[in-house]
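Q: Here's a chain of 246 amino acids. Please give me its 3D structure as C-alpha cells.
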Amino acid sequence: MSRVWDSFLTDKDREVFEAAGYRQKMGFGERPALLVIDVTYDFCGDRREPILDAIRRWPNACGEQAWDALPRIRSMIDAARAKGVPVIYTAGGYRTDGWDFGSWKWKVGRLDESQTAERPNLDGSEIMPDIAPGPHDIVVKKLKPSGFHGTPLTGHLTLLGVDSLLVCGVSTSGCVRATVIDAFSGNYRVAVAEDGCFDRSETSHAINLMDMDAKYADVVPSEEIIRYLTSLPAGLFDLPSGPTGP
C-alpha cells in the first residue's frame, strides 16, 4: 500500500526504520473513543478555496485539504455513533480579549487577527457544521496543542473506561501529533486516520504521519477505522444523555 510519506523518504531512511524495528502494528483496542481534533472554522475557513486565498481571512486555515477531509471525518463519526462509541471533540477555548493566548503570541504573527479579522459572523472556534457535535458527544476546550494539556480529557476517558483512541483532525504536525504523543504516553493504543487529518504544509503532514506511524500510533486509512468500528458490539459505553451544553 502506498503511503503519503513514501516520496519523502530516502532509501537509507527505510533501512534505518527496518533495522530499528519501527512501525510494528500495535492494533486496535477493545473500548475506543473517536477523537476529533480542532476541526473548526479557524482551520477550515467558511468555504472551500485554495489555501493562500483562505488564509487572507482565516490565518490558520488549511485550504482545500480541510474540505477533502471533512466527509471522511463525518463517515467515522457516523460509524462511531451507530455503535455508541464516544465521539470527543476538541476546540479552542480562548477569552475574547486573547489574554490567554500566552506563548502562542511568541510564534504566531497574525494571532490577534483570529479575534478581530473582518469575516462572516462566525466564531473561529466553532466546530464545522458538517460534523457538528450531537447530544451524546463530548466537547473539550483547550488552549495548547495537546487535547490533554490542562483539560478534563483524561478524566472523561477514565469515566468511560476507554482503552484506545482513534484520532483525526488538524493540524497533523501540531495538535494532532501533540495529542497522539500524550495519548501514547498515557498507555492508550492509538490509531490515526491518514486521510482524516490535514495540515497547511504538505511536507509537515506527510513527515509527521510517517513519524507517528513509526513510533506512537498506527496510521491507517479512515476506511479501516470504519470497518473496525462497525465490527464492535453495540452498547459498550454509558454516554452522556443530553445536549453538549449552551
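Q: Can you summarize the key feature?
A: The longest strand covers residues 189-198.
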